[in-house]
Amino acid sequence: MGLAQELAAAGVRRGAPLAVAVVPGRGVGLAWAGGTRAVVGDPRQVAEQLAVLGPRWTWWSAREAARPLVAAGFRPRACWDLGAVGMLLHGLRRSGPEAVWAAAHGRELPPEPGPRSHAPSLFDLPDAEDADGPVRADGQLASSWVRGGWAGDIDDAARWAELAARLQRQQEALLRGLPDPRPAAAPGSPGLALLTAYAESAAALLAVELEHDGLPLDEEAMTGLLAQMIGPRPADAAAEAAMRAARDERVLRRFPGPPVDLRNPAVVRELLTRVGIDVPDTRSWRLERYAATSAPVAELLAWRKTERVATTYGWSWIDRNVGPDWRLRGEWGWADGGAGRMTASAGLHNLPAELRPGVRAEPGRVLVRADLGQVEPRVLAAVSGDAGLARAAREDDMYAPVAAALRCDRPTAKVAVLAAMYGQTSGAAGAALRDMERAYPRALGFLRAAEEEGRAGRDVRTYGGRLVRLGPHPPGVEPGRVSGYGRYARNAVVQGAAAELFKAWAASVRAGLARMDGEPRIVLCLHDELLLHVPEAGADDAVALVRSMLEATAGWWAAGSGVRFVADVSVGHSWAEAH
DNA sequence: TGCGCTACGTA
DNA sequence: CGTACGTAGCGCAG
Predict the structure, then answer these.
(1) Which of A109, A190, A311, A448 has an alpha carbon 20 to 30 Å from A278's alpha carbon atom?
(2) In terms of domains, do A48 and A159 share one?
(3) Which nucleotide is closest, CA of A424 to its C1'?
(4) Which of A496, A526, A551 represents a domain boundary (last residue)?
(5) Are A342 and A390 found together in one domain?
(6) How many whole angstroms separate alpha carbon A308 and alpha carbon A329?
(7) Nearest to A372 by CA among A236, A534, A501
(8) What is the pLDDT of residues A236-271, one digit of tens each?
(9) Are residues A462 and A394 in the same domain?
(10) Which domain holds residue A90?
(11) Helix (H) or strand (E) segment spanning residue A318
């Protein structure tokens, strides 16, 4: 009997959790609701064999378990990421097994491992106890197992997988215990928190795939752009320094007096006084109004732009982050920060618009760009259950009906909505804000409630169930700056829910692409934008897919709210062209 | 070397 | 109107 049949007979069926601990090159440990199994063999081949069962691959982290499979060319279908779900459920800032295990069992979190050594504690002397297994007598995970001690032995890997399977059931039970915020969830269907856990897990896997695949650049296009903006690639450090000096000189010769360090804001401020400009700081937006009348300022601002590209997105950036295959690769986070947005390093999330023509599909392929329109106000309408705002969110442009309701013009309506969502401090849209309160009381009440929870230092949960900690040290908020908690919480419930919707959409697009030919891939996630790299022949199908998946996702995510989500979708050879 | 500040790119 | 994130160079403290 083959392995797949064996597990099928043991009750592992489509969508059922199957925990896997990968021992690279040696085998895998498996565990499911009814048993465990240590399998010797190439992990990728084992995974391929079991894929016919369509299990929900369950692992402590995609980074550890899925990376070797992805690197070997295996693309898992569905998964459960204990780290990702643990962060979601418990509001953790880290996703390690010791933390998610402790949180699920209501125990104090082990101290954060790090370069900074801490005072010795009970957590530091587990090795003597480890012989017994992964769980210590005090209920915490043994640190040698957490550090991967199980990976030396396939039977240990099976024990590690068994523990994963157990924690998966506990997490699932906790998720099922959360209230479903949707007014019209289909009876008998999974709750929103469980569905969000699936999406978070998929996002964690997608992060691993994005790191592996990278973003395709075109060598000729990108080097051409850079050469035009910052000059040709310097031959050596001396040539680089000379070009730098030449760039500085162009600016300095416009100012009277001795040269100064343009990279030092304090002396730049002094420099500006030489041409009669006195400013509190030298930020670009503040200097912009002088640029039209002052050639030195215009030159300085142009220098800043070039300097930004030269230092952050220049030749050394290419050398550090672009492979010989001309793929730009960075590290991806699936749920960083307070709100749980995806993050990326290596400039993937802040690539200047001028460089986007350098992001190009490979020959025979195209890029499909899809971005959600007005996603945050639509999310607000859905999560607050405000019938009036939801009615507005049925339109392609929801600011038009909002303007009508507020009896103002569209730009004012937009500012009023944004001011309400993010807690404005300056009084530009005061009157419109009062009209908002009248027109959309439920949405405004929802935001105010989040703000009050934040001010009081009470944790909040997003629509999808992410716990946002507002306790002693919420990330991004200085302890003691209690007024900051309010806006932080107000923002987190909207931005966080939007991130959850986006990831659910991305997960379903990923699943849909897996059924298409020619290895179409998601190559970039940018908060409300997806970029797909697909065969030319599959472009129309990909466009249809992102649209139908948005409709399907919104159908369950915003069930009963009446809110529509819209996407702008386009196809092109370069990222810039697909706009 | 590590950290805060200033500045700026993206959503 | 606000929030989030990553990156880089500077000055300063250690």
Answers:
(1) A311
(2) yes
(3) C1
(4) A496
(5) no
(6) 20
(7) A501
(8) 888 888 888 899 999 999 999 888 889 888 889 889
(9) yes
(10) 3-109+119-177
(11) helix A315-321
- Determine the protein residue whose CA lies at the shortest distance from the C1' of B10: A350
Residue A339 sits in a domain of what CATH number?
3.30.70.370
Å between A106 CA and C8 C1'?
A: 41
Nucleotide nearest to A281 (CA to C1'): B6
- The count of structural domains within chain A is 4
CA distance A23 to A68: 9
Reply yes or no on whether the pLDDT at A77 is more than 50.
Answer: yes
Most confident stretch, A127-136, A276-285, A381-390: A381-390
Q: Is the CB of A484 under 7 A from strand C?
A: yes
Residues A57 and A27 in one domain: yes
What digits encode the pLDDT tens for the residues A513-541?
999 999 999 999 999 999 999 999 999 99
Q: Is the CB of A346 under 7 A from strand C?
A: yes
Q: Is the CB of A483 under 7 A from strand C?
A: no
Per-residue CB contacts under 7 A with strand B, chain A residues 248-287: 265, 268-269, 281-285
Does residue A193 lie in a domain region?
no
State whether the beta carbon of A352 lies below 7 angstroms from any atom of strand C.
no
Rounded distance in angstroms from the CA atom of residue A392 to the C1' atom of nucleotide B7: 38
**In A 48-87, which Cβ lie closer than 7 Å to strand B?**
none
pLDDT value at position A450? Answer: 92
Number of other CB atoms surrounding residue A503 within 10 Å: 28
Q: Which nucleotide across the nucleic acid strands is nearest to A116, CA versus C1'?
A: B2
Q: Which nucleotide is nearest to A492 (CA to C1')?
A: C3
Look at strands A215-216 and A365-373 and give their pairing. unpaired
In order of A18, A343, A394, A567, the CA distances from A379 in angstroms are 33, 20, 12, 14
Q: Is the CB of A418 under 7 A from strand C?
A: yes
In a domain, A205, yes or no: no
CATH of the domain at A390: 1.10.150.20
Q: Are residues A233 and A257 in the same domain?
A: yes
Domain co-membership, A565 together with A446: no
Q: What is the pLDDT of residue A397?
A: 94
A437 & A414 share domain: yes
From the C1' of C7, which residue's alpha carbon is nearest? A312
- Global pTM reads 0.94
List bases in chain B with any atom under 7 Å of a protein Cβ: 2, 6-11
Give the closest residue to B5 (Cα–C1′). A265
Query: Which residues are within 8 A (CB) of A187 and not within 5 positions of it... i.e. 6 or more apart?
Result: none
Q: Which candidate, A362, A324, A367, A328, places its Cα nearest to that of A214?
A: A328
What is the mean pLDDT of the segment spanning A351-379? Answer: 94
Judged against a pLDDT cut of 80, whether residue A325 lies above it is answered with yes
Taking chain A, what is the end-to-end CA distance rounded to the nearest angstrom? 53
Question: Which two structure tokens, joined as six digits, stand for A304?
Answer: 């800043």
Domain boundary among the residues A474, A496, A518 is at: A496
Most confident range (mean pLDDT) of A183-187, A258-262, A334-338, A541-545 is A541-545
